[in-house]
Amino acid sequence: MPDGSGPPGRFRPDGETGGLPPGGAGPASAPAAWADALLAARVLSVGGPSLAGIHVRARCGPVLDAWLERLRRMQPPEAAWRRLASTVPPAGLTGGLDLTETLARGRPVRARGALAACDGGLLVLAMAERTEATASGILAATLDTGRTDDDRPARFALVALDEGAEADEGLPPALADRLSLRLTLDAISLSDAMRGELEVPPAPRRDWHTVALPDELLNALVAATADAPAARSPRRALALSRVTRILAALDDASEATPLHAATALRLVFGLPPETASSEPETAQDTAEADADPPPDTQPDAPPPDTPLQDSPPPETESGDERQMSPEDLQDMLVAVMTGHGLDRSALDALGGGVTQRGTAGKSGAERKGATRGRAIGIGTRPVPAEARPNVTATLRAAAPWQRLRRAARDAAGRPATTPILITPSDFRYLRHRHRTETTAVFAVDASGSTAIDRLGEAKGAIELLLADCYVRRDQIALIAFRGRDAEVLLEPTRSLVRAKRNLTGLPGGGPTPLAHGLQRALDLGLQIRRKGQSPLLVLFTDGRGNIALDGSADRAAARADVERLARQGAALGLKSLVIDIARRPRDDARSLAQTLGADYRPLPRADAASVSRLVSGYLKEAPGS
Amino acid sequence: MSPPFPFSAIVGQDEMKTALLMSAADPTLGGVLVFGDRGTGKSTAVRALAALLPEISARTGCAFNCDPARPTDICPVCRPGAGKRRPRAAKRPTPVVDLPLGATEDRVCGTLDLEKALTTGEKAFEPGLLARAHRGFLYIDEVNLLEDHLVDLLLDVAASGVNVVEREGLSVRHPARFVLVGSGNPEEGELRPQLLDRFGLSLDIASPREVAQRVEVVRRREAYERDPQAFAAAWAKEDARVTAQLRKAAKALAAMETPTEVLEMAATLCLRLGVDGLRGELTLVRATRARAALAGRSAPTPDDVVSVAPMALRHRLRRDPLDEAGSTARVARAIDEVSFAVAGHA
Q: Which of B10, B92, B101 would best serve as a mutation to test chain A binding (most A beta carbons within 10 A)?
């Protein structure tokens, strides 16, 4: 399997880098972004477990290290700080029997789980986008209840480091939804991150719990976010309320102001800070300026060693804030969200995982050692690491050695503590094989005059397939290519509900970017394979493309591109099927199928029923079952 | 340990609350399936429910939640060897067990107690989550993402009320009767019809759309976080009222008669919708009775049928990929027709 080994990689001949999914925002001003990042770290340090944690989207690198270092310095020295890889087995989280120690000592030795060890501190979860369903389930439940499974206290804040690069990678939604803060570090350069002193800002003098959040402000916050898709979960509103009050506490204010709310919006949704020219940029600075509430007799604002105060605060604004009407408040908050052409739908992308398809539950066969499924044999290594030894097999392995070991024990003068002498090398583990899921990727030519019919039939076939797919747990995805580009209309899904929603009103017509379509299909196929499922590509085409990969309407270049991609596809060994939909089938589609190493089926009238029958046959015989 | 968020303090979500209370009053209803957005208080409601359920009685240290009157054969606590004394029975809260997604079969069913096997060479059974959930609730978040083989296993146990373990040289069976509560987000995957059908009631819930309600959610949650004890105390009276209501309902159910009118209406409705099997009809009638009992009435009425029919039937309709209208709409349509016919009779 070529997965993970690099070379085949992504199909981007023009050298475009993968990068993160579009953040939606314009160029963020980096120092402001770093200031926000540090502010988020401070808020997290103050809020701790009541914020559940922070979702950090960043590649591994010095900026992330710098940020983590700052965060760490903000914690009290005695607070727990544990870094875990997301591949940690469940037993590592919750604790369990330590087999080797137990054997060595002849009495049960329990390993303390990481969760309980983090009580009162921070848990840094590296590569959080790879978190397995089990681990994310355990983490989510612990964040909810503050206790582990065996009822030990485990109140901590989770720092989820999400290195997801592909659009489909991300934190499991169950976790992403619970974490109050979001942060993207990719716009920050190393020189920015090195700026500013390393000194730890003092803890706020005021307990944030005592900060009042005026009713109209809470109403405005909830109203401003109510219809944003990423804010559908009430947990966002709760996070906003808390972060707003923590920000006010950091300013030593007894009551939160709209500017605190505006900053909270940024931190909670992970919005980039506005550039200097825009009005709400001054939000945090004015928040600082606001920090002299009339009833308070504090002589001056807290020491300004936070990066909040890079620019002189415009003092004129603070006076008006008190008289803002609820509508103004709401407008202002909406303005913060819509600043820089950032419409509310962009929140989805920024929500980072909130609306993403769950990676949870997709038990890849990539994990060849599943802990379930059919037993296929016995091995000497635990795969996965938390697998339980099989007692019968272990005893059988230990039996021949008993006399020798007893003799050795007696010779060494050790007391006879256990009836059977078992050493770690005796452990045997059952191997399981889990059925691999298959995902059928439909790539449909939506160009030309017959596009509507063809798409309609493809859609019908998809719905028919999905209607009985849950029986076998297969998934379907749909790519349509027309005009200048190919588009993934339906991400791999098993959900009929979702398919129906995404497939209403499909566009059709225009020239034929077959190369794009093939490229997207191969991309998606690889993605699916990386997840440990088997992809099946189903191409609906007449094999005649007229748009090259670079977007030019050059038939020859287009053909060359298609051929190159098809060869690459064949090299990858992706299982594929070409359905020739030309009225009078000619050689184009057949030769494409040949190059691609695909099966070829001429089906001039590709109706939903026959297509679904055909593909269904392929799905059933798919490997891995 | 701080008290859980009080059940009565959950804002809105009346349908979910009613459904949970109904299945608590009548455990034979077959559990509840809640589909809906994240953060709508599904887990909160289930955990809160645990706090107001009447306590059960079991012997101290019993890992199987045995009924002291009818202990399990294999329970080492309730059936100690000859000459040993059994510990006293004590009240314990009704168990509400979370089944984590991706739990292994070992964890769910129980398995050989490795600790004992390795240290003393004794072959002992270590009960799993199913044993812990006996006489209580088994809650599965993201039930639609649950592994197939676990789903099958749960189906089997839920249907028979007995967990049978045959592995690693063990041969064990113990009772596991629980109310299955599942939740999930349908966009992330669907549930097999076999499992769907197994749930008594099914709900589609959404987070509150009104700003005022959403604000109230935040307010109550914040008040709870600030001082859980005080918040729980403030709602204790309400919760106690619900507990009393549950107790009364459970008692009333035992003696409740079902009028023919209600039975006929349920049958007509199921016929009209083409619901497979008798389970739908049975559940509908039981749900109707549970609703009447919770309302403190002595017998169910056609009104009860109308009100519980959507949650009892919507997940049992034959799937029709070409029908754009959801199953809820189909049930509503059938109810309209049937209730009109009944009214015409009377």
A: B101
Distances from the Cα of A38 to the Cα of A168, A183, A188, angstroms: 28, 10, 12
Residues of chain B in contact with residue A371, where contact means CB-CB under 8 angstroms, are 104-105
Distances B325 to A474, A489, B196 between C-alpha atoms, Å: 24, 22, 19
Length of chain A in residues, anyone? 625
Which residue has tokens 């990539």?
Answer: A366
Q: What is the Cβ-side half-sphere exposure of residue B315, based on CA atoms within 13 angstroms? A: 27
Chain B residues with beta carbon closer than 8 angstroms to that of A356: none
Could you give the CA distance from residue A532 to residue A529 in angstroms, rounded to a whole number? 5
> How far is A547 from A549, CA to CA, in rounded Å?
7
For residue B328, give every residue at least 6 positions away whose Cβ sits within 8 Å of its Cβ, in sequence order, or none.
B204, B310, B314
CB A221 within 8 A of CB A177: no
Q: Check if B226 is active-site.
A: no
How far apart CA B21 and CA B294 sit, in angstroms, is 8
Instruction: State the ipTM, two decimals.
Output: 0.78
Closest CA to A527 of A167, A170, A174, A172: A167
Q: Residue B185 is inside which H or E element, if any? A: none
Residues making up chain B, counted from first to last: 346
Minimal CA separation from A559 to chain B, in Å: 38
A411 CB burial (10 A radius; 0-12, 13-18, 19+) = exposed
- Considering B279, B289, B316, B318, which one is annotated as catalytic? B279
**DSSP string over A115-128:** HHHTTTSEEEEETG
Q: What is the pLDDT of residues A259-313, one digit of tens each?
A: 888 888 888 888 777 643 334 333 344 333 333 333 333 333 333 333 333 333 3
Whether residue A195 contacts residue A31, with contact meaning beta carbons closer than 8 Å, is answered with yes
Give the other-Cβ count within 10 Å of A165's Cβ.
15
A350: left (phi over 0), alpha (psi -120 to 50) or beta: alpha
Of B35, B40, B96, B104, which to mutate for an interface test with A (greatest number of A Cβ within 10 Å)? B104
Q: Do B192 and A107 touch (CB under 8 A)?
A: no
State whether residue A607 is helix, strand or coil.
coil
Residue found by looking up tokens 């709508």 in the block? B40
Cα distance between residue A391 and residue B265, in whole Å? 57
CA distances A33 to A30, A200, A274, A306, Å, are 5, 19, 9, 14
The answer to whether A108 and A403 are in contact (CB under 8 A) is no
Q: Which residues of B touch A226 (CB under 8 A)?
A: 209, 211, 214
Flag if A464 and B321 touch (Cβ within 8 Å).
yes
The tens place of each residue's pLDDT in chain B, 346 residues long, gives: 678 889 989 888 888 999 999 998 888 888 898 888 777 788 888 888 888 888 888 888 788 888 888 777 777 777 777 777 778 888 888 888 888 766 777 788 888 777 777 677 677 888 888 988 888 889 888 887 777 778 778 878 887 888 888 876 778 888 888 888 888 877 666 677 667 777 889 888 887 778 888 888 888 988 888 888 999 999 999 999 999 999 899 889 888 888 888 898 888 888 888 776 688 888 999 999 999 999 988 899 888 888 888 888 888 876 554 455 567 777 787 877 777 665 554 4
Q: Among the residues of A188-257, which ranges form H helices? A: 190-194, 215-226, 234-250
Strand partners, B181: B32, B139
For A224, the closest chain B residue by CA position comes to: B211
The pTM assigned to this predicted structure is 0.69
Residue B186: both structure tokens together: 């349908």
Alpha helices in B120-259 (DSSP H): 129-133, 148-160, 193-198, 211-226, 228-254
